[in-house]
Amino acid sequence: MTLMGSYPAAGQAVVWYLGDIDVWFKEGEQLITNNHIPASFYPQDELMASYPPPDPQGNLGVTLAFCALLTGLFLAYCAS
């Protein structure tokens, strides 16, 4: 492993040799490769599309009643 540092204003670079590093790759695991990318993230031969279930939209009557209440309160405020 080598560490390099530079100072652009002086135009020089400093190099430090930090030594060798022992590396162990996790060979043989089913879910993780050497670069730690799960196999499910790799490109597939066939594209599959799925859509989430629709969100509940609420009750129209409750929404209209709430809007009517706000409108009534606003008109009462303006009238006073």
Report how far the terminal alpha carbons are from each other: 79 Å
Arithmetic mean of pLDDT? 80
Q: Catalogue the unreliable spans.
A: none
Percent in helix:
25-40%
Largest sheet: 2 strands, antiparallel
Number of helices: 1
Instruction: Assign the structural class, choosing from mainly alpha, mainly beta, alpha/beta, alpha+beta, or little secondary structure.
Output: alpha+beta
Question: Strand portion, in percent?
Answer: 15-25%
Describe this structure in words.
The chain is of the alpha+beta class and 80 residues long. Helix content is 25%, strand content 15%. The chain has a two-stranded antiparallel ribbon. Strand 1 (2-7) and strand 2 (12-17) form a beta hairpin. The longest helix is centred in the last third of the chain and has 20 residues, at 60-79.
Strands, helices and their partners?
Layout lengths: L1 E6 L4 E6 L42 H20 L1
Antiparallel strand pairs: 1-2
In short:
By secondary structure, the protein is of the alpha+beta class.
Descriptive terms for the model:
80 residues; alpha+beta; two-stranded antiparallel sheet; 1 helix; 2 strands; elongated
